[in-house]
Amino acid sequence: MAKIYAVANVPPEVSAYGMAKYSRSSAPLSDTLREISQEKASNFLNTFYFSYGHASIADLAHIVLAIEDISMLAAMTLVDEPLWDGQERSTRYQNFLTAPYYRPRGASAEFDQFCSQLFAFYGELLQASLEALQIRYPRPEHMTSGTYQRTMQARALDIARYALPLATLTSVGQVTSARVLEQQISRLLTSEYPEVRDMAQEMKIAVTERAAFSLTESLGQPLAPTLIKYADANPYLADLTARLKTLANEIFRSPPTGPEISPVDLFMAADPITDGLAMAFYGTTALPFGWIRERLRDLSTSVRSELIDHLFQGRGAHDGWPKFFRTGTLIFDILMDIGAFRDFNRHRRVNKVVQPIDIHQEFAEPDMLQEFAVPINYHSWMEKYYRSLISGTMAPLDKPYLLPLAHRRRALFVMDPAQAAYIIELRSRSAGHFSYRQIAVKMHHSLQQVLPDLARHIRVTPFEEFDPFER
């Protein structure tokens, strides 16, 4: 009969060593773990992980990290990791009215003034929306007063979150393998934002130098003193990003013109070279994916070949291929408010290319404000706020922190049809936030146009099917 048992309270590096020894020993894991000390594990990992390059060993060490009191802007960057699991504080179930916010080093008093404006408007939206919802949806007889109040509060928070600044402090709990954590820290150390670099450095210290938190007996030692110690900023990634920005300015001099931009566009995969190059430039511009791809198709074969060389220039011995070549079947170019993006950003099995936050992408306006007759001139308030922010004298890297969650952001979501079906079925449900419900329904509509035989099997919830009491 099979012998199966769970393992707990074992330091990640010791666990990784024990797992790795399975291929070299017939002893049970329990016996192996009893024999291993942190010192033995460190010696083994230094030899096989760093010297011999057996990178998969680090996949056996899983680390739980709490990253608290970071801005929502930093959290978005943190979570943008394909092999990642975790949770962030929810804007749907927590009131952020009195939440603290991140203040960049050297920020002026003007920064605080903009934050105060957004938080005050957040409070006004929350109260006005709650009152309007209670008028529109009286409490059903079968629902208790407490449940009704919590449900209506959550729906009101769905609207109010549009005014939250990206500087708002949040917290993230994550679970990753040591290999993913090492790559994540390296990526974050390459960020242009000082806060993100500081966060990455603290993450490194937390697992290599600082004793870990334990519910039972304190481990008295860091979780991964060996596997993460060489995590550093990635010069290849930093140089590649700068090079792509320069090339984009040379190639895409004339911005696209035409009809109003659609919030969701679906693209079928072309050849890997065209799609790879288009994704590379998409991540450093504010241009629609389709327009970039058509422009690249007009280039000569020799120019395209030269562009590919640029993507690999400076690639180090331990750097993988640029993520732009992890092409999938379906490519969705989605323009959404950042509140919805934070929800979509948690999906794994999706290759994402996220554009930098562009202050000129402007803001989304929730249809619910008019539908529920919320007595606030949202559009006028936001327009005035944006005019003031754009003309403000803050440092360029401070301004993104002052954008509300209503701000729109472009991102490519590359996935196979099965993952698209999962996202559409999950995110279109009545219990979901109306913003991402609209995106999910539009994704389904796009699939109906190009893959009707597959789309008809997706159990999408029509947007008009809305139960305000479903959570």
From TrEMBL:
UniProt cross-references to SUPFAM superfamilies, sorted A to Z: Thymidylate synthase-complementing protein Thy1 (SSF69796)
Biological-process GO terms, alphabetical: dTMP biosynthetic process
Matching Pfam families: Thy1
Domain of life, per lineage: Bacteria
Protein name: Thymidylate synthase
GO MF term list: flavin adenine dinucleotide binding; NADPH binding; thymidylate synthase (FAD) activity; thymidylate synthase activity
